[in-house]
Amino acid sequence: MKEATGELNMTVITIVAIAAIAAFLTFFLWPKINDKIQGQWDTIDTTDPSHN
């Protein structure tokens, strides 16, 4: 029973760690990445001669 409890604890720790990394990426890095993508998109739109 102790071994099963230990495995469950490691599973919970792993899930919490993955959730923490996902939250960090979402709240801190995604806005910067999105701004850079949007800036590149705007540059393409203004320099494209076929763009109306």
* DSSP summary, beta strand count: 0
Note the quaternary state here. single chain
Pick out the low-confidence regions: none
Separate helix tally: 1
H/E series, N to C?
A: H
Mind summarizing the main beta sheet? none
What's the average pLDDT? 86
Straight-line N-to-C gap = 69 Å
**Rg estimate, integer Å:** 21 Å
Alpha-beta content class: mainly alpha
Helix content: over 70%
Instruction: Give the percentage of residues in beta strands.
Output: under 5%
Shape: rod-shaped
Counting structural domains, the number is 1
3D structure, described in words:
- There is one protein chain.
- The protein is an all-alpha fold.
- It has one domain (1-52).
- Helices cover 88% and strands 0% of the residues.
- The chain has one helix at 2-47.
- The radius of gyration is 21 Å and the shape is rod-shaped.
Main traits of this protein?
52 residues, 1 helix
Short description:
By secondary structure, the chain is mainly alpha-helical.
Question: How are the elements arranged and paired?
Answer:
Blueprint: H1 2-47
